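Example (one chain per record):
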Amino acid sequence: MKDFGTFAVFHEDVFIEHYRPYVPRVIRPSDVYGDFELQPSRWVYNALRTIDRRCVWTIIESDRHDSRDVFYSPGFHMVNRVGYAVTHEPHNDASIVFCAYWRRSLCARGVSREIYRLRAYLRRASRNGLAPTSAVSN
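Predicted structure:
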């Protein structure tokens, strides 16, 4: 975890374990790449609009030219977008991102430790107003 005060960056393994991404049934197999990443097409975007927006994440590539980093960011974004992900667990507009291209995967103990830090960060951010929750679904 990297805590930047107004937002935090966590490892992709934590995203997968905590938020549990999946491919919705309304998405065509041809619009899926990887295990759960969705192509940024008009058809996918329209399908995602029917899903609770708090469960939709945008996959964004880094704007640094010397970096291959890709991030999962809560909500819909258009700039630097390479795709979308849908999760079982809502993000509630939290001020967090998850980096997909860090050097290596975390071990099981590392994932558990980072999930503990994520939950603590979300509780702390919620108290400080950094992770607003929204009752609006779309």
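Caption: DSSP finds three helices and nine strands in the chain.
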